[in-house]
Amino acid sequence: METVNRPDEWKIEQGLSGAKLPFLDQTCRDTVAIAPAKWPKLFKDEAAIAAIGDRNKLFVQEIEGWKGYVEWEKYPEKKKLAHRILTLQSFPPNPEFQMGAIPDTNPVLPGTHWKMWHHAVGGELTNVPEDSWDMVLREKHAEMLHLLQFPYNGEPPKRLVTAKVITPNPLHFVRNHGGIPRIEKDKWSLSLDGLVANPRSFTLDDLMDEAQFLRMEKLVTMQCSGTRRIEQISLYAGQGDEVPQAPWAEGAIGTAKYVGISLKKVIKACGGLLNGAKHLELYGAETYFKDNQVMNYLVSVPWSKVKANEVILAWEMNGEPLPKIHGYPLRVVVLGYIGARSVKWLYRVKAIEHPTLAPVQSKEYLYFNQQIGKHNQRPTDGIQIQEMPVSSAIMSPWQRQVVIHNGKIHCKGWAYSGGGRWPERVELSADGGFSWYAVPNASLSTKHKWTWRTWEFDLPCDVEGWVEIVCRCWDNSLNTQPLTVRAAWNWGLHVTSSAHRIQVYSMNKSRARTRQRLEKFEQTGSPLAPLTWPEEFQTQSWEEYEQFWEENDPRDVDD
Ligand SMILES: Nc1nc2c(c(=O)[nH]1)N[C@H]1C(S)=C(S)[C@@H](COP(=O)(O)O)O[C@H]1N2
Ligand SMILES: [Mo]
Q: Is 226 in the pocket of ligand 1 (CB under 6 A)?
């Protein structure tokens, strides 16, 4: 007899290949299995695309010296042409990783769609994917974990996330929604328009004129609201935002000293806002794609935030001009808000009445409640994420790591709170969150209003075997973190702010028997790692075994 099941049947039944699992529709008299769709055959209407015109003329560099910048917001007609080109053809799927295996590669995900969309629109965007990757290799550290090659999303490895309180520029995480424009500083200018009294534009020299604008220097932690998303993905698949749900670990956070000026002062220099202006729409120069539409990267921040001098226009990062990948020549830094509002490659600020309708603001970076999913979500069901809640993470040891210790496991990590709150206390537990130890103040880095605190701690752990180490933070408002990922899970896969849990195998060498056993491994040359390698020696002599039963009651008794 031959087996008739598909070879991966067992994995499918066990939910290990979730994307291949049929849906069960139990709403009819007989249950119907809905098989996963196959990606449709690709099509491309070459003739219709050619008829639209010469893409090298249609989609040109808007301003000389601004490589990779195509202006879309001013030209609705041009947007329509790009949309038509994108709908006259189809594209292959991105790899499934939320309900399947994550590739063993670095870059982890290639961003197939995004590369092809750029190539399809062509013109100035033709070389953007390749150009941007070159820039990554030039500006970032050789040990970066490239989660998504294009648009580039990368974080430092855990070992380096908190190695320094101030993150060196090459190690600062990067989160892009498109390419990396290359703008010459002397050709750059910023325009302010919309509901301002006197619309005008500024060169970088204008903004750097200290007689006009007071310099600001701030130490700021920037956190992407996708930080630690992998914990939500590992639990359940979700939508995330459009850029293939970058499977961030704990490294989408970094701290830098920025130099610049307050956006409020620049608005003042334009004669202030007109009546009704409540939001500032911020424009980034690269091209973003959503639903076959092209656009520039747009978000908005409330005037109240700007008025408090908490929105900075920055040109310097850790004593250097902004790296190109971080927004050169000028970016926004919004203190205490999610990274998404800190627009890079800023070229325009427009005063408007309401939060922008641009999709990054209105359809992404939303925090849904748990009854909201793919089949009932509306953008208005989500809270637009601005300030991040209090959070923390363990950077050492790692999930599933075996730790040999003398009764205390040495742990390292970070803690952060948004909105100008800061970590007051960091606590760790070695028993899944039953008993907690506070990290002494001396083991936490200095407090600042807008930054994280890094920490180290020797966590008492008596037991042998698998333990769950948990970390949580209390901020200065005494907010703390939900205890489980499930409690914070949401369809958008944002704001993974639950207490950080890792499972670690504890080998406690302060116990005589463990110490002796470790010596035995050494004497016999029996490999210690991996944990599952069988011991190559007896763990008890027969004499000891028999002696035990002589001294103790037998296993079973007769009456
Ligand atoms: N123009 C532009 N600005 C942007 C983005 C972008 O894709 N384009 N990404 C935002 C997001 S989501 C984050 S988390 C931060 C990341 O900043 P970094 O790449 O300098 O670390 O930039 C924000 N500013
Ligand atoms: Mo982000």
A: no
Query: Measured at the alpha carbon of residue 77, what is the angle toward residues 75 and 82, in degrees to the nearest 5?
Result: 100
Quote the CA–CA distance of 360 and 343 in Å, as a whole number: 11
Neighbours of 286 (CB within 10 A): 21
In this structure, the answer to whether residues 473 and 516 fall within a common structural domain is: no
Cα of 548 to ligand 2 centre, how many Å? 61
Same domain, 288 and 402: no
By residue range, what is the domain housing residue 519?
512-546
Residue 95 clears pLDDT 90, i.e. is over it: no
The answer, yes or no, to whether any atom of ligand 1 lies below 6 A from the CB of 289, is: no
Ligand at minimal distance from the CA of 287 is 1
Q: Within this chain, do residues 64 and 141 fall inside the same structural domain, yes or no?
A: yes
494 C-alpha vs ligand 2 centroid, how far in Å? 9
Ligand nearest to the CA of 494: 2
Which residue's C-alpha comes closest to atom 23 of ligand 1? 340
For residue 304, give every residue at least 6 positions away whose Cβ sits within 8 Å of its Cβ, in sequence order, or none: none
- Count how many domains the chain has: 3
Q: Is the per-residue pLDDT at 241 higher than 80?
A: no
H or E element that contains 402: strand 401-405
Please say if the pLDDT value at position 243 is more than 90.
no
